Structures are given as C-alpha cells and as structure tokens.
Amino acid sequence: MDDRQMVLCKIEKALCRYNKFVANQFSMRQLPRAPSRDVKNIKRWHQGHDNRAIDEHEHSYLDQEDLICLSRKDKTPLRQMIDSSLRLRTLSIWRDTSRPSMGDSGHVSYFSDKKMNAFVSMMIVLIGTAMLIIPIWILERQDDLEQKLIVITIFIFAFLVVLSSVMVTKPFEALGATAA
Predict the structure, then answer these.
(1) Is 135 strand, coil or helix?
(2) Domain ranges in the chain?
(3) Which superkingdom does the taxonomy of this entry point to (predicted)?
(4) Which residue from 91, 90, 108 is spatially nearest to 99, judged by alpha carbons?
(5) Among 16, 25, 65, 136, which residue has the least CB neighbours within 10 Å?
(6) pLDDT for res 96
(7) What is the mean pLDDT of residues 59-85?
(8) What pLDDT does 137 receive?
(9) Distances in Å between the alpha carbon of 22 and those of 17, 34, 67, 71, 151?
(10) Neighbours of 78 (CB within 10 A)
(11) Are 48 and 107 contacting, i.e. CB atoms less than 8 angstroms apart?
C-alpha cells in the first residue's frame, strides 16, 4: 500500500468516527432536559452527604444547562401536580414499604409509582364517567330544547378542558376524543 492509500484509509476511519460523533450529538440533542426537580433532588442528596460523595469541584455539572433525561416518563398533569406538592407526594398511602431506606439515616423514603399511577388512572376514569353520565341525567330533566343545547355545550367544553388538563394529550387528540 502506498502513502496515498494509507492517508486515504486514515481519513476514511477519521471521517467514520467523526460521523458517528455527530450522529450521537444529534440524537442526544433530541433528548429532553433533565427536570429541575430531579436536579434539585440530586443537589439535596449531595448536601445530605456533606458534599463528599464526589469532589467538590465536580458538583458544577449540576449547574449546567445541558443536563438531559435519558429515561423519560410522560406523566399526566394530575400526576405532575401530585409530584410537585410535597404534601401530596409524601402521603403514607403511596409509601413503598417493600424497600427499606438504604443507609441514608432515614432521610430517604420510597414511594410507589404504581400506587400513584393507579390512583391517577382511577381519578381520570371517575371524572370521565361523571362527565359523560351527569349530562344525560340533566338532559332527561330538561324540557326546553334551548336549555338542552346549553347543557350539551357546557359539558362538551368542560369535558375538553378536563381531558386536556388531566391527561397527556396533544390539543388535536383531546379535541378528537371530545368529538367522539
């Protein structure tokens, strides 16, 4: 192999590595940012360990804007509300007693996502069912056609608002579900 072919071979390998790097960077940029709540929890955990878990100068990674979330779970707005409220998310009904605290001096409590998600699903089903059945009973009691139209309009609008605010849906999906 002459010098020119060796140089071309090296260039080809370098370009291949560069292309992989660019593709990885592109796919990483598509990942969502780390939720600020998670970053705060990590900072709190470091503080709970007197900032000695890693070297102090290495904590600066938590102050950067480019932290990403590798495993994202879409949560309904109702579930997000529970998660954002310290009082709601630490209710004893969510506690996971199968996981003991792991040497963190009792400062760590585990809560069951399964229980929280089941509660949220149950609430969505109950609210949705009520939004479908209540207007039927109201309409049965109404004699005036105009009043029936008002009841139908109010409940369709309320159903759309509730559906948009309690479930993880895009606006056109909520509108389609409401139309159905």
Answers:
(1) helix
(2) 30-72, 73-180
(3) Eukaryota
(4) 108
(5) 65
(6) 77
(7) 78
(8) 92
(9) 9, 22, 18, 21, 56
(10) 19
(11) yes
Please choose, from the candidates 55, 54, 62, the residue with its C-alpha nearest in 3D space to the C-alpha of residue 34. Answer: 62
Cα(154)–Cα(73) distance, rounded to whole angstroms?
Answer: 33
Which residues pair with residue 111 across a beta bridge?
Answer: 95
Amino acid present at 6 = M
- Whole-angstrom Cα distance, residue 83 to residue 89? 5
Distance CA 108, CA 100 (A): 9
pLDDT band (50, 70, 90) for residue 149: very high
In the block, residue with structure tokens 């600066």: 60
Average pLDDT, the chain: 81
Of 121, 106, 135, the C-alpha closest to 166 is 121
Angle between helices 113-141 and 77-84 (to 10 degrees): 130
User: CA of 5: how far to CAs of 1, 11, 60, in Å?
Assistant: 6, 10, 46
The model's pTM: 0.57
H helix runs in 30-112, sequence order = 36-48, 77-84, 86-89
Asked if residues 167 and 80 have their Cβ atoms less than 8 Å apart, the reply is no
pLDDT at 1 over 70: no
Instruction: Give the tokens for residue 11.
Output: 């260039």
Write the pLDDT tens digit of every residue in 88-144: 877 888 877 776 655 555 566 677 888 888 888 888 888 888 888 998 999 888 889
Reply yes or no on whether the pLDDT at 19 is more than 90: yes
